[in-house]
Design brief:
CATH class of one domain: Mainly Alpha
CATH superfamily of one domain: Tetratricopeptide repeat domain
Helix content: 55-70%
Number of strands: 9
CATH topology of one domain: Serine Threonine Protein Phosphatase 5, Tetratricopeptide repeat
Largest sheet: 5 strands, mixed
Number of helices: 23
CATH architecture of one domain: Alpha Horseshoe
Distance between the termini: 58 Å
Radius of gyration: 30 Å
Length: 632
């Protein structure tokens, strides 16, 4: 279903739901029951087929026919078992640091108050996590048949950035989904939707299960999902109403505003700042969450006003069941929502929810989450630190080459990458401008410069990203995503919608292109590689670092779909002394490193000529295909 078709269906269903919500909920319930009915019917038919063919296999006189019937019976049994496994979808319970009433009595007292107010049943467990997020979920014990446990998940940064009243609003919103005051059918359907989503994902890549259930799911799931999506969005508004009832409209709205600013602070200031520490330090900071808590206690900086304005400008879309920020504020009747441009950035809370509700648990959670993060990130951090050191050395080499007047375009781009990793965006602006003066169509340079400009609300960034996509079609999804976010921030909704259609069309064409490229073999028509002198020089520079590589030939596949995007075939011929043992692991490691480092202007398939001799022979036959040979 294309984005336009999906939007039209959802918009139509939202109108129907508003006109008769109870009737609409019952209609969706019937669709859910239809799903279960078909699954059970398929199971009954398969078991009947297994019994019938098994009985005939025993009674038939002809041994060959009996064997064939028995094979059919066994196949039917396995198919039935596949359907049973489909019904037994298990959703993973949330993970985190479990807290109980003894460790955090104030938190559980507030949770009890909210449960009574909103008429919510028992919450099985409460977890703290290191994420800036909160969630309440039900995990069924018996797959699609239900009988669920309820969990509440609270991110530690959330407690450290919100006031106690604002956190109560967040909790009320999350557990409000479980309220007995809400339509019971609606709550059941929303749970069923999440369970079926897992089932659809698992049945898409599991052989015979996909064969048995695939045709039905392809017809039924998009329709049921669209109906359930509308109900899920309605539940979000009802959960907001529950939050407003629990703490008041002003507090509930202020919590939403603060969360908008906190999210952008995480993305654009805190985590980029942490990543820069790897340049100077070989080990991750041992006090990450203490630093975060201190950062959240600072008054919002000058960027906070822009973040809030942009957050309020983002419209509701059909990619998420959550309505947009402004629609939520308007629906709950938040003061000033009718003139969002005048809404102030919330100031720092006098007392944090962590201080009020967690007590000493806050420090223990900080220590645990930081320790887990250090263990998880240690190797990648060390690698980033080592790469930063190498980049600093490379910068010295490129500066020497620039002084000598021998700096190539590839070396200029490598210098920009080095500077960007070590010093950040501000330092690369003059360098990337210089690169684009020399090569205005440079894809990576235009992409980087366009992203930086859009981050600074400069509309000329759109033009640079368009140039990047024109030169490198595979940059389309990410470049369109950046432009889409910019258009949404600026209220240019029609242009944002056009980008969604553009990405959808690109994905359809890309799928056809990938299928064509996957079919390339030694019988396919091949063309000369078409690399210019600078590209060949950059390729030879990389290859010369590996003494086991004796010879390399490159050709291009002749393509019908996206022919402007080259697809190279790279044949590597390995030659080592006969007395040196070389295992397959060494060959795989070489291929992996070349896949990451070979600077070819397009997609490429790299293989060892000894393992695919016919394809290697076909590549070598192309005129001018040899690009490298080790000095004898």
């Amino acid at each position: 279903m294309s984005p336009d078709e999906q939007d039209a269906l959802l918009n139509r269903l939202e109108v129907v739901e508003r006109q008769a919500p109870d009737r609409f909920a019952k209609r969706v319930a019937v669709m859910a029951i239809l799903g279960y009915t078909v699954l059970i019917l398929v199971l009954v038919l398969l078991m009947g087929a297994a019994l019938g063919t098994g009985y005939l296999a025993i009674r038939v006189a002809n041994p060959l026919v009996g064997r064939l019937l028995m094979i059919g019976a066994v196949s039917a049994v396995f198919s039935a078992w596949s359907v049973v496994r489909s019904l037994w979808v298990r959703l993973a319970a949330p993970q985190g640091m479990e807290v109980g009433a003894r460790q955090a009595p104030a938190l559980f007292a507030e949770l009890k108050r909210l449960r009574r107010l909103l008429r919510v049943g028992r919450i099985s467990k409460v977890f703290l996590t290191p994420d800036l997020n909160a969630a309440a979920c039900e995990v069924p014990r018996f797959g699609v048949f239900g009988w669920s446990r309820r969990y509440l998940v609270l991110g530690l940064p959330l407690l450290q950035g919100l006031s106690p009243e604002e956190l109560s609003s967040v909790i009320a919103h999350e557990i409000g989904h479980f309220s007995r005051e809400h339509n019971g059918i609606t709550r059941w359907i929303c749970r069923v939707r999440l369970t079926w989503l897992s089932l659809v994902s698992s049945s898409s890549d599991r052989g015979f299960r996909s064969l048995v259930l695939g045709p039905f799911l392809r017809w039924w799931w998009p329709r049921f999902n669209a109906h359930a999506f509308v109900l899920s969005r309605r539940q979000e508004y009802e959960a907001d109403a529950a939050a407003a009832r629990a703490v008041g409209t002003e507090v509930a709205g202020r919590a939403l505003l603060r969360l908008t600013v906190m999210s952008r602070f995480f993305e654009e200031e805190f985590w980029p700042g942490v990543q820069k520490l790897a340049v100077d330090s070989p080990t991750p900071p041992p006090d990450l969450h203490r630093r975060l808590a201190q950062a959240l206690r600072q008054e919002p900086g000058p960027e906070a006003r822009r973040w809030l304005r942009e957050g309020l400008a983002v419209p509701t879309n059909n990619a998420d069941t959550h309505p947009c920020l402004l629609d939520r504020l308007v629906q709950m009747g938040f003061p000033g929502a009718d003139s969002p441009g005048d809404l102030p950035v919330p100031s720092v809370a006098a007392v944090t929810a962590a201080a009020a509700f967690l007590g000493p648990v806050e420090q223990r959670a900080e220590d645990r989450f930081t320790s887990e993060w250090v263990v998880q990130i240690r190797d990648a951090w060390k690698q980033r630190h080592e790469e930063a050191a190498k980049r600093l050395e490379a910068l010295e080499e490129t500066e020497a080459a620039e002084a000598a007047g021998t700096l190539t375009l590839q070396e200029r781009w490598e210098r920009i990458s080095h500077v960007g990793d070590v010093e950040g965006d501000e330092a690369v602006i003059p360098l990337v401008r210089e690169l684009l003066e020399l090569e205005p169509t440079h894809a990576a340079g235009n992409f980087l410069y366009g992203r930086i400009l859009l981050d600074r609300d400069d509309a000329t960034g759109v033009e640079h990203l368009e140039r990047a996509m024109k030169r490198d079609l595979f940059a389309t999804p990410e470049a369109c995503g950046l432009i889409h976010a910019y258009f949404q921030r600026k209220g240019r909704l029609a242009e944002a919608k056009a980008l969604e259609r553009r990405v959808y069309d690109y994905e359809q064409e890309l799928q056809r292109a990938q299928e064509e490229r996957a079919r390339v073999n030694h019988r396919s028509p091949l063309l000369p590689h078409g690399l210019d002198g600078e590209d060949e020089k950059a390729v030879r520079k990389v290859l010369s670092a590996y003494p086991e590589i004796f010879q390399v030939s490159i050709a291009q596949a002749k393509l019908q779909v996206l022919p402007e995007q080259p697809y190279f075939l790279v044949a590597i011929f390995i030659k080592v002394p006969w007395w040196k043992f070389r295992g397959t692991g060494a060959d795989r490691a070489l291929i992996d490193v070349l896949l990451r480092s070979l600077p070819l202007p397009g997609q490429f398939y790299l293989f060892l000529e000894q393992s695919l001799t016919p394809l290697g022979r076909a590549v070598r036959k192309v005129v001018g295909s040899q690009v490298y040979e080790r000095a004898r």
